[in-house]
Amino acid sequence: MVHLSTISNPVSLECTWKCAVVIPLSCYGFRRATVDIALVVPLSGSAGMFGPSCEACAALAVADINAAGGILDRQVRLHPVDAGAPLPVLAATIDRMVGTGMVDGVVGWHLSNARKVITPHTAGRVPYVYTTFYEGGEDSDGVYMVGETPEQQLFPALRWLRAEHGIRRWCVVGNDYVWPRETARAAVEFMAGTDLEIVGQSFVPLGGRDFRQSLDLIHRSPAQGVLLFMVGADCAAFNNAFAEAGLDGDRLRLSMMIGEDVLYAGGADSTRGLFTASGYFESVVSAAGMDFGARYLREFGPAAPALNNIGESCYEGLLLFASLVESARSLDLRAIERSAPRVSYGGPRGEVRVRGAHTTQPVYLADADALEFSVLAELDS
């Protein structure tokens, strides 16, 4: 695992946590020598397998930002927070870090249920860049999104699979929390104006491994494809069960939260007919993307965490945070809001522009070739 305390600043993470100031520094008009950011990524739970890649990509981002002069002429320092912690613990941690002035902002990839307990403690107080593709609709004060929404990612992928493979009928299998439920609802609304339809839905608790009801639903239904709204280790376990049940012979899967680490966890036998869509794949041929992949390998070596769209989104999130603050020349939310429409930056995904609280970027569709993704097309949103 990458230790973020080894980048950007010689102060150890242990000292960073133990030396947290209880009284907000702003009360004294104190301007810290660093810009401190809470990096909220999953280090445990169903999505915990994504944590190492998120940390590694964040480390690269901070190194790049600091090499370019930092943010507001100050070096950047990260404070990792486990997004897999119980939600009340996570909420209390963010409230303490923001309320005491320990951090100047929040960046991270985490599930929507985590986002919903974080925003009450950041809204109107500090900038928060959420890097996860999500169900859409977030409008809390000071929140900016790197990740794709269904309009950018899921709906174009469904249109492409209809045109190229004739897939019209879908089952939904997801974890039982806000992102799968709300994304399934959005998919039903989208399909109402098309010849596509969802013929069944099944939801499994986070961490659950009893897929019998879901597999039986798929087997009995006329579905030609399965929309997978499952997380990390849960997705890998379902893919194994799906293949072992022989359902991969005539039904494809479109999984919206998956990286190469999920492929590794499930094994090559579980990936036949598996598709996904994302703004980043290591296999996209572009100068910026290839340079990022080469630097990642050079920095962390062949035993590095799998480079995937989820981890890379943390690199993008920190670039966006830096770009927003630098454009405003301030951490003040109103100043950031005024300058945000002019913000763009270049990164591994190409040129990314801010539009409202979201970003615009290319999105690609890929299929799994054993244990890696092969890009098939750039999608039109």
TrEMBL record:
Record's keyword annotation contains Signal: yes
Sequence ranges assigned to domain Leucine-binding protein in this UniProt record: 34-369
InterPro entries, per database record: Leu-bd, Peripla_BP_I
Superkingdom as given in the UniProt entry: Bacteria
UniProt KW keywords: Signal
One matching Pfam family: Peripla_BP_6
Annotated family: Belongs to the leucine-binding protein family.
Protein's name according to its UniProt entry: Amino acid/amide ABC transporter substrate-binding protein (HAAT family)
Lineage of the organism: Bacteria, Bacillati, Actinomycetota, Actinomycetes, Mycobacteriales
